[in-house]
Design goal:
Elements: E1 18-20, E2 26-28, E3 42-44, E4 47-53, H1 80-86, E5 100-104, E6 121-130, E7 137-142, E8 148-153, E9 156-162, E10 168-171, E11 179-188, E12 213-218, E13 222-230, E14 235-243, E15 251-256, E16 261-266, E17 272-278, E18 294-300, E19 303-309, E20 314-317, E21 320-323, E22 326-327, E23 330-335, H2 350-363, E24 368-371, H3 378-387, E25 390-394, H4 406-423, E26 429-436, H5 442-458, E27 463-468, E28 471-475, E29 478-482, E30 494-498, E31 515-516, E32 524-529, H6 548-562, E33 568-571, E34 579-580, E35 593-594, H7 607-622
Parallel strand pairs: 23-24, 23-33, 24-25, 25-26, 26-27, 27-30, 29-31, 30-32, 32-33
Antiparallel strand pairs: 1-2, 3-12, 4-5, 4-6, 6-11, 7-10, 7-12, 8-9, 8-11, 13-14, 14-17, 15-16, 15-18, 18-19, 20-21, 21-22, 28-29, 34-35
The structure holds (2S,3S,4S,5R)-3,4,5-trihydroxy-6-oxo-oxane-2-carboxylic acid.
Domain Glycosyl hydrolases family 2 sugar binding: 111-219
InterPro entries: Beta-gal/glucu_dom_sf (IPR036156), Galactose-bd-like_sf (IPR008979), GH (IPR017853), GH2_Domain-Containing (IPR051913), Glyco_hydro_2 (IPR006101), Glyco_hydro_2_cat (IPR006103), Glyco_hydro_2_N (IPR006104), Ig-like_fold (IPR013783)
Organism: Aquisalinus luteolus
Length: 628
């Protein structure tokens, strides 16, 4: 059972899966969190799996809508080959044991050429040996399955999960066998008008099991959630929630050896404990320039959970963003979850993530990354902690959402909760974003208002934002732009995507004349700005759209504009790397890629890369020491 804390009021609210919010509705949360799951005793189930395509979803339903016929149930433990040998009239139309083999995690787009644009159901099977010890509990934990996962273990349905980017776990203690076990997962990439995101986006779907799968062992009573952070009052705060029959009244402790600090106490009857202590004077604060991380050990009885945690504060004050009490400018870039290479498959290994983040940190002189448009892997946010990059973390409430549908709202809230609970210990994450480019309207305002309430209920150690639309007016040749969105009153940072000179607005030579009005006393950032360019197409003479020279001119003009906006406190231009998008089909310049990257899909830097890199370098030099 998951416990979620109301840190805003300082009162711990435990309610299994729900937290009452300001709107009076219940915030759904994950049943099992398994904080830092990779650190637990586990069997790694990544590696070789077999797969079988099922475009008509025969494995879930027969053609008359009943349960699937015997010969179609790919999740059964039946050894099809030996059964059909013994009974030659038996008819099976699948045999997972003899299917094609692939290495997971990774999207199916690269399993076979015909799967490049497949967005349906795929079955994956994996056999493995286990030897559980008595008294241990076992959980199947998935880093992400895009989009819907139907999980069968040793022939039984153990659960379903919707949402392609957040972790989920099912307990399988009673089904786990000493010896051979069979895990079968049906992953369906289809999205509908009711899902989050909806079917139309500007990125590749990347269906499949895209993140690690693990069989995790825990003691009978274990630490399910654990968190430590620097409170606004300068205290080190900590929370632990236990799961299991002996969760209540249990001694727990948090130790940070490097600070000579131990906090201890006893869980309440619900298995929850919260404590705090003044931060020691020698605490090194986490910042991009000095990403200090501490080894933190959470203990409850025979269960110890290690974490690496940085301590910092983040606030918005007037139009400033304050990191550890000092004003900071977010020198950022956006990125999709797609590795470098001509044929990405969302295979985000540590070297793949490091390669991208290093381009931001060292290549662009950045200190900030917008992880667009959905939660990226846990490894990415952990590496951001380690490498010193501030992070904007986002859920895919994107463009056209079914705003008045309660199921869609429930899905968005669950996704938000899963994302937040997974990453509560990441100092790098300073912003939780609840939406991207969503038109103002009553249903939308209510929907997003609920998500904002959920964020605030769970976490007061970070800021809330959303990428908003702007309103513009041109009079006497001068364009004025402002934010006219009731949501702005409820956000800490106002973020806008701006494409003047690319999608509309004045010609490039007029871009820096645009007047950005500040109608709220809040910091604003450009969550996007950008123009497309095919790497290698310089076009120095004509400088047309899709040339490197146009893109570089666009950056020069937009950066000049940005310098005239006093309340602009950062930016995450669109985007680090060219990324796959089925919407982008110009036969010469795009060929299925959104070309707004500052580097090509294979890592070739475009001219605009250097424009932004110089801009950030100058800003860095202009920043007085200690301001970051
Ligand atoms: C946007 C979207 C982003 C697109 C980008 C573009 O405003 O937020 O997802 O990829 O524009 O390239 O048009």
């Amino acid at each position: 059972m998951s416990r979620i804390f109301n840190v805003v009021t300082g009162i711990i609210i435990l309610c299994g899966l729900t937290v009452p919010t300001a709107t009076g509705q219940d915030a759904p949360g994950p049943e099992i969190v398994l904080t830092n799951s990779a650190s637990r005793e586990h069997l790694d189930l990544t590696g070789a799996w077999t797969y079988s395509i099922d475009p008509y979803r025969d494995g879930l339903k027969s053609f008359h809508g009943n349960g699937p016929g015997l010969g179609h149930r790919r999740y059964e433990t039946t050894d099809v080959e030996s059964v059909t040998r013994e009974n030659p009239t038996a008819r099976y139309e699948y045999d997972m044991r003899r299917e094609k083999i692939v290495t997971l995690p990774g999207s199916w787009v690269n399993h076979a050429p015909e799967l490049r644009h497949y967005d349906g159901l795929m079955w994956y099977a994996r056999e493995f040996d286990a030897s559980p010890e008595s008294g241990q509990r076992a959980f199947l934990r998935f880093g992400a399955a895009n989009y819907t996962a139907h999980v069968y273990f040793n022939g039984e349905l153990v659960g379903r999960h919707d949402g392609g980017f957040t972790p989920f776990a099912f307990e399988v203690t009673d089904l786990l066998q000493d010896g051979e076990n069979l895990l079968v997962v049906g992953v369906d990439a289809q999205r509908t008008d009711q899902t989050v995101p909806p079917p139309v986006t500007d990125w590749e779907t990347y269906g499949g099991l895209t993140r690690p799968v693990r069989l995790i062992y825990t003691p009978e009573t274990f630490i399910d959630e654990a968190r430590a952070w620097l409170g606004k009052d300068g205290s080190i705060m900590a929370e632990i929630a236990l799961d299991g029959p002996r969760a209540g009244g249990r001694d727990v402790s948090v130790t940070i050896d490097a600070l000579g600090l131990t906090l201890d106490g006893r869980t309440d009857r619900n298995g929850v404990w919260q404590g705090s202590t003044p931060a020691p004077e020698d605490l090194s604060l986490w910042s991009p320039e000095s990403p200090a991380l501490y080894d933190v050990a959470f203990t409850a009885g025979n269960d110890t959970l290690p974490e690496r945690i940085g301590f910092r504060t983040i606030e918005a004050s007037g139009t400033d963003i304050l990191l550890n009490g000092e004003p900071i400018y977010l020198r950022g870039i956006s990125m999709h979850e797609e590795e470098l290479g001509a044929d990405p498959g969302r295979i985000m290994t540590e070297p793949a993530i490091r390669a991208l983040l290093s381009e931001i940190k060292d290549g662009l002189n950045g200190n900030f990354v917008r992880l667009a448009h959905y939660p990226h892997s846990e490894l990415t946010t952990r590496l951001a902690d380690e490498m010193g990059l501030l992070v904007w973390s986002e859920i895919p409430v994107y463009w056209l959402i079914d705003w008045d549908n309660p199921d869609t709202l429930a899905e968005a809230r669950t996704m938000l909760a899963e994302n937040m609970t997974r990453d509560m210990n990441r100092a790098s994450i300073i912003i939780w974003s609840v939406a991207n480019e969503t038109p103002v309207g009553d249903d939308r305002n209510r929907f997003l208002g609920t998500l904002i309430d959920d964020v605030r209920t769970r976490d007061d150690s970070r800021l809330v934002s959303a990428a908003l639309l702007t309103t513009s007016e041109t009079r006497n040749g001068t364009m004025r732009t402002w934010i006219d969105d009731p949501l702005a009153d409820n956000l800490d940072i106002l973020a806008v995507n701006t494409y003047n000179g690319w999608y509309g607005g004045p010609a490039l030579d007029g871009v820096d004349d645009i007047i950005w009005e500040s109608r709220h006393d809040k910091p604003m950032i450009f969550s996007e700005l950008g123009a497309g360019a095919l790497a290698g197409f310089a076009d120095e003479e004509i400088r047309r759209k899709f040339s490197e020279s146009f893109q570089a001119d666009y950056y020069r003009a937009t950066l000049a504009m940005s310098e005239k906006i006093p309340h602009l406190k950062g930016m995450s231009p669109w985007i680090l790397k060219d990324f796959r998008s089925p919407r982008r089909q110009h036969p010469v310049y795009q060929q299925g890629w959104n070309r707004k990257g500052l580097i090509s899909e294979t890592g070739q830097r475009k001219q605009a890369f250097y424009v932004l890199s110089d801009f950030y370098r100058n800003m860095q030099t202009a920043t007085p020491a200690g301001e970051e």
